[in-house]
Amino acid sequence: MKKKTLKFLHTMASCGMVGALAGHMAVLASGPAETAAEFAARREVIATLANYILFPSVGIILVSGLLSFAAHPPFQKARWSIYKLLLGLGVFEGSVALIQTKANYGVKVAAQVLAGTAPLEAYAAGLSKEWALLWALMALCVANIVLGVWRPRFERRQKAADKQEPQNADKPQEKSQPAT
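and the corresponding structure tokens:
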């Protein structure tokens, strides 16, 4: 694949992922469900966002990012891209293992609430953890986007220090006079 195609896929999938997380947050922010049917409907929307937007977006992000890293040798030498790769693996783990699992678990709890085998408050205990996870994942996504756009040169300080050492080695050292 061409570099521009990979970049386009990576960027569009990133938009999809952030959009799915924002949608998840919007559903949660709409307030507590007053009825079991409302609770079930909200959890179904969250599961749909996770299964049809978030999960495919994460897959495309991961594959296009890895292919870009492999196909473009300068990315392999740039520290920002290595940090982005490591953060991307964290995003993958967080979104697939935690968000998607939590979304699908929410649908099961909603079914139990509808059936009357669990109280409506059954899922409220995990809601604060869900918010924390969403904010943490959103922060990782934003950090990845910033690294991809800004592309900081983390090695500048080291190069500057390396350049100063040879210059100082060429200068004769002055002998200091003992204090009298």
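(Above: one complete record from the training split.) Residues 3-150 form one domain.
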